[in-house]
Design brief:
Layout (H helix, E strand, L loop, with lengths): L3 H9 L18 H12 L5 E2 L6 E2 L2 H13 L4 E2 L6 E2 L2 H12 L5 E2 L6 E2 L2 H8 L4
Antiparallel strand pairs: 1-2, 3-4, 5-6
InterPro entries: Zinc_finger (IPR050331), Znf_C2H2_sf (IPR036236), Znf_C2H2_type (IPR013087)
Protein name: C2H2-type domain-containing protein
Keywords: Metal-binding, Nucleus, Repeat, Zinc, Zinc-finger
């Protein structure tokens, strides 16, 4: 059947080589995550292209944010320090803390690299597995 539990079970029963990066040995619980890891980390595959300036991005959300802040420049909130536009004030506040104040409280225990958001550290840790 096409329900989610059968998808999870399929991935759990997948051969180990489909859940392990053949380049660096990182291990994943879903085949999709293994493929995404190889595309974005090792192949630097950038499938999302800006139609206005041809710049390419790994993630659709990065392209959307690029178009919004660089080309449209119609933002509901702007950074008072650099003028970059954002969709809302909370994104401005996060930008100020991470870019202008350098706040990065999440640190990789393997290489020491620091991140502003826990999610970014979590994604980064995949390169060390």
């Amino acid at each position: 059947s096409g329900d989610r539990t059968s998808i999870v079970r399929t991935d759990a029963d997948a051969p180990e080589d489909e859940l392990t990066c053949q380049i660096c040995g990182a291990q994943f619980t879903r085949k999709h995550d293994t493929r995404r890891h190889v595309r974005t980390v090792h192949l630097q595959q950038r499938n999302f292209k800006c139609e206005m300036c041809n710049r390419q991005f790994i993630h659709r959300t990065h392209l959307r944010d690029h178009i919004y802040s660089v080309h449209i420049k119609v933002a509901l909130a702007k950074c008072p320090e650099c003028g970059k536009g954002f969709k809302n004030q909370s994104k401005v506040n996060r930008h100020i803390l991470s870019v202008h104040k350098g706040e990065r409280k999440y640190q990789c225990t393997q290489c020491g690299r620091r991140f502003f958001q826990r999610w970014d550290l979590k994604k980064h840790m995949e390169v060390h597995l």
